[in-house]
Amino acid sequence: MRKRKVTVIGTGFLLLLGLIAGYGYMMTDHDPESELDEGVIQRVDISREKKQVDDIFAIVDEHTPIEQLDDDMKKYETSLFQSFVPEDVEIMEALLTEKEIRGFSLDYRHQGNRVSVVYFEDGKVSKTISNGQTAESNFNNEQTERVDFTKP
Fold first, then answer.
1. What is the pTM of this model?
2. CA nearest neighbour of 140 among 129, 150, 125
3. Radius of gyration (Cα) for the chain, nearest Å?
4. Handedness of CA 17, 23, 24, 25 (dihedral sign)
5. Among the four residues 34, 36, 91, 115, which has the most C-beta atoms within 10 Å?
6. What would the 3-class secondary structure string for 16-36 be?
7. Which domain of life does this protein belong to (predicted)?
């Protein structure tokens, strides 16, 4: 029970980070000074994920969740979404959040990093990659940012 709660909290944190980054950008002026280097942009590239949005929600709509975690959060069988992540990657969680707009998150580990991809029903995508010391995120190719957790 404790492990599931910790995983849900961790996934919720990454989902929240992606939502804050994306929607925070929409509420503020874009600052060209904060642009990231090409390496960060490549690591959080969402080209593939943008093409997967409709397919993700088709699977969500065709299957029943395996667990209702909260009033607006449902957990799905991870194996349904295995084709949407890199080969040999095990998905830790697949969650649907139903707020103003539905968001579906896939949370997995890849190359020593934790990756959280949030697909929004309106076609937008947020991707966050964290190694525990930094987090890099891309919200719909409209904003990319890097957060360093080691700096005060």
1. 0.75
2. 125
3. 15
4. positive
5. 115
6. HHHHHHHHHHHHCCCCHHHCC
7. Bacteria
Q: How far apart are CA 127 and CA 46, in angstroms?
A: 7
Q: What residue type is assigned to position 66 of the chain?
A: I
Q: Report the length, in residues, of the chain.
A: 152
18: its two tokens: 């992606």
Kindly tell me the sign of the dihedral angle through the C-alpha atoms of 78, 87, 121, 30: positive
Burial class (CB in 10 A: 0-12, 13-18, 19+), 59: middle
Q: What is the spatial distance between Cα 85 and Cα 17, in angstroms, rounded to a whole number? A: 20
